Amino acid sequence: MTDPIRVYSAHKDHDELVKLGIRCNTAEKTGNKICIDQKLTKKDRNEVLTISFCGDNNSIQIHGNELPVGSISFMGNDSSVHIYRENDVNINVFLYDRSNLYIEKSFSIFGLFASIYSNTTLRIRENCLIANDVKIWTFDHHAIIDLKTMKQRNSPQDVDIGPHVWIGESSQILKGTRIEAGSIISAGAIVRGLIPSRELWGGNPARRVRRHMSWTPSHPTNTYDLNVMLASMPDDQSNWSRFKERLKKLLSRRPATR
After folding, report:
1. What percent of the chain has pLDDT above 70?
2. C-alpha distances out from residue 115 to 20, 65, 238, Å
3. DSSP per residue, 20-84
4. Residue 70 Ramachandran class (φ > 0 left, ψ -120 to 50 alpha, else beta)
């Protein structure tokens, strides 16, 4: 049986990677691997993924049926990227020492810039929609010093984007943010901290606009997308569970359309 994943050496397999639509930049670094789903195809000859290795022992795994577009830059050592693409994934990502990026099966990622600092993780879970010009950081770029103690007051923190989250255009997601399932971040918001499930947030700094809100990609919506929305959100609250059951009964009376 053929292994569905093929492993390429970033340094030795340059020509084969170019044929797949991957431009690989490596300055004699070692131990860097690119693992690609064998069913993956290059959608457009003008679409290229550029991968730069400035350190050693980094890895990237790409699953799905198409290649992501944009750039991934490994600025240090021992970092990893895992991407599952079935729809648009357009990214520009920088990873430092021992950092991680996980992108699960997303609805679409139209334009994400991310900077993931040493020993931190950015995770984007299933069925998310990320609009153009969205920026995510797991650190502040510079140290903030308490002059009384001469100690640094800011430290890097993970970012976790839950399933079925919609992040609007030009939003900024700061270190330590956790956005729970089904929530919406309005365009231009600056977000930090915990965003509870099924809520609409917006502004600078982002504040709750309304509870009990979620989204579907269709407009006007349809039964199929409503069912996908329901399936994407966990039953973590008793009130939500009761509402979900009522909504399912209502949906069962409507013709299923896409």
Report:
1. 86
2. 26, 26, 37
3. HTEEEEESS--S-EEEEETT-B---TT--EEEEESSSS-EEEEEESB--EEEEEE-SSS-EEEEE
4. left
Residue 199 predicted with pLDDT over 60:
yes
* Band of pLDDT at residue 178, cut at 50, 70 and 90: very high
Q: Which amino acid is at 46?
A: N
CA distances, 134 to each of 66, 84, 112, 166 (Å): 22, 19, 5, 11
Phi, psi (degrees; rounded to nearest 5) at 16: -65, -35
Both tokens assigned to 144:
């903030």
User: Cα-flanking dihedrals φ and ψ of residue 177, to 5°?
Assistant: -80, 140
Residue that has been written with the tokens 């609007």 in this structure: 168
Q: How much is the pLDDT for 1?
A: 38
| pLDDT of 250 | 61
Check residue 181 and report its DSSP letter: T
Percent pLDDT > 90 in the chain is 60
CA 197 distance to own-chain centroid: 17
